[in-house]
Amino acid sequence: MVSSNIILDKDLKIHNVEDIKDELLRKLDVKGDITIDLSSVEKIDISGLQLLISIVAELKELKKIIYLLGSLKVTSPRI
Predict the structure, then answer these.
(1) Per the confidence metrics, is the pTM higher than 0.85?
(2) How far apart are CA 74 and CA 6, in angstroms?
(3) SS3 assignment, position 13
(4) CB 42 within 8 Å of CB 15
(5) How many angstroms separate the CA atoms of 26 and 30, rounded?
(6) Pick from 14, 20, 18: which is nearest to 6 by CA?
(7) PROSITE patterns per the record (predicted)?
(8) Structural domains present in the chain
(9) CA–CA separation, 16 and 48 (whole Å)
(10) I need a surface site. Which of 3, 42, 46, 76 has the fewest CB within 10 A?
């Protein structure tokens, strides 16, 4: 089966999550499974995590498999 690769090279934080979401949604309309490479992402906050969860849910609805590559550092705001 054909797989589509998406490389994210920006941090997934509240200030840019909407732009990244729009970019990802445009790229999800492909045949086959999806691989999202997160190796260049240095930080992710709760907004970024919610985005990834929503993308996984969307792909599940489309009966596609998603692969997430890389490792992340999840950050939380200091209170």
Answers:
(1) no
(2) 20
(3) coil
(4) no
(5) 9
(6) 20
(7) STAS (PS50801)
(8) 3-69 (3.30.750.24)
(9) 9
(10) 76
Task: Determine the residue type at 53.
Answer: I
Q: Which residue type, as a one-letter code, is found at position 34?
A: I
Is residue 46 a contact partner of residue 15, using CB atoms and an 8 Å limit?
Answer: no
17-27 helix and 46-61 helix, angle to the nearest 10 degrees: 20
- 15: tokens are 């200030």
Kindly tell me if the per-residue pLDDT of 1 is higher than 60. Answer: no
Q: What is the chain's Cα-based Rg?
A: 13
Cβ atoms 6, 36 nearer than 8 A: yes
Phi, psi of 43 (to 5 degrees): -140, 150
Three-state DSSP class for 32?
Answer: coil
pLDDT digits (tens, 9 = 90+) for 42-70: 888 899 999 999 998 988 888 888 898 98
Q: Is 68 helix (H, G, I), strand (E, B) or coil?
A: strand
